[in-house]
Design goal:
Helix content is about 40%, strand content about 20%. It is α/β, with parallel strands linked by helices. The strands form four sheets. A seven-stranded parallel sheet has the order 3-2-1-4-5-7-12, with helices on both faces. The protein has a four-stranded mixed sheet with strand order 6-15-10-13. The chain has a two-stranded parallel sheet with strand order 8-11. Helix 6 crosses helix 10 (about 305-320). The protein is globular. The protein starts with a strand and ends with a helix. The structure holds UDP-4-deoxy-4-formamido-beta-L-arabinopyranose (WQD).
Length: about 325
């Protein structure tokens, strides 16, 4: 089986490539290297530099391919509200180009990197796949639109897809094979790490007046290697069942912002310089997944998502090159 991984040089994509290679899948990475990094490429995977905005390049990359994993999208929520045109072009035009190229090259399977952002403000804390979808930012809108496009291309052209709705992706490959650090990260754990390594002088906790046990927001942190494994299993599912699915990927457990900071301090025996700041707009109080559908359909069980492993695998990479 040969799989095209679009965005395979990125943070999640490189972990997906590793999981595929470990399962003896032939991998071809297609990445424009706008945020992907050379250090994340595996020598056992073929690499084509190219953009999903170039249909000819996409068609060429799809030659001899059995399925596609598509992770190449812009993903900064705040930026998507300021520059929607950039997100429309990359995440929507790019996705349409991909679907059309797949039709042309007769490639039938697609695993798509979606997001809990499709749900918008949760109406209940533990979100299942039947929760209404109503994104509150343009980034989440682009992910939902792609899900809808895939449903049409399934009905009209027989492309079968699994849309994986990630909750909060964290952690790094435990064997140290993936070392690329995101530049100028805004997500909690990288911000904690940058504060520890001195890249940032201090960090802010956005709100401690929420209706949660310690007042800070609660999220479902899922280790990126667990996420990666779900992509490999989703491909197997498509080959076996030929049926499209939307699946949450999370642990079902929540941790608060303060818990993440205090646990990091305890595990690393270091102090983190943080202040309490006002709430960040658009942050839901609690967002955790019900991921039993993925467990059942893919036989997927997160193995690496305990907080200790998440923090230590991330710190290992930051300590090395942060
Ligand atoms: C987690 C918690 C912050 C930084 C985002 C996207 C979502 C998905 C995953 C891509 C929140 C708090 C953070 C800081 C803080 N993206 N925080 N200080 O917002 O849950 O999810 O990433 O698919 O669509 O919205 O993740 O890591 O930004 O925040 O206090 O410096 O940490 O307020 O409560 P979020 P996050």
């Amino acid at each position: 089986m040969r799989i095209l991984v679009i965005g395979g040089a990125g943070y999640i994509g490189s972990h997906v490539v590793k999981s595929l290679l470990q399962n003896n899948v032939q991998v071809r990475v297609f990445d424009d290297m706008s945020t992907g990094q050379a250090v994340n490429l595996f020598k056992d995977a073929e690499f084509i530099k190219g953009t999903i905005l170039d249909s000819d390049a996409l068609e060429h990359a799809l030659e001899g391919v059995d399925g596609v994993i598509h992770l190449a999208a812009k993903k900064a929520v705040g930026e998507s509200m300021e520059y929607p045109e950039k997100y429309a072009q990359n995440n929507l035009t790019g996705a349409i180009n991909l679907l059309n190229a797949m039709v042309k090259k007769n490639v039938k399977y697609l695993v798509f990197s979606s997001s809990a952002a499709v749900y918008g403000i949760p109406q209940y804390a533990q979100v299942d796949e039947n929760h209404p979808v109503n994104p509150i930012n343009f980034y989440g809108f682009t992910k939902l639109e792609m899900e809808r496009l895939m449903q049409w291309y399934d009905t009209l052209k027989g492309i079968k897809f699994v849309s994986l709705r990630y909750f909060n992706a964290v952690g790094y490959d435990a064997e140290g094979d993936i070392l690329g650090l995101e530049k100028n990260p805004q997500n909690l754990l990288p911000v904690i790490m940058e504060t520890l390594t001195g890249i940032r002088e201090k960090m802010a906790v956005f709100g401690t007046d929420y209706n949660t046990p310690d007042g800070s927001c609660i999220r479902d942190y899922i280790h990126v290697s667990d996420l990666a494994e779900a992509h490999t299993l989703a491909l197997k599912y498509l080959q076996k069942n030929n049926q499209s699915q939307m699946l949450n990927l999370g642990t079902g457990r929540g941790h608060s912002v303060l818990e993440m900071i205090l646990e990091t301090e305890k595990l690393l025996n270091k102090k983190i310089n943080y202040t309490i700041a006002p709430r960040r707009s658009g942050d839901p109080e609690t967002l955790t997944a019900i991921a039993t559908k993925a467990e059942k359909l893919l036989n997927w069980y997160p193995q690496q998502s305990d907080l200790k492993n998440i923090i230590l695998t991330t710190w290992a990479v930051y300590q090395k090159n942060g």
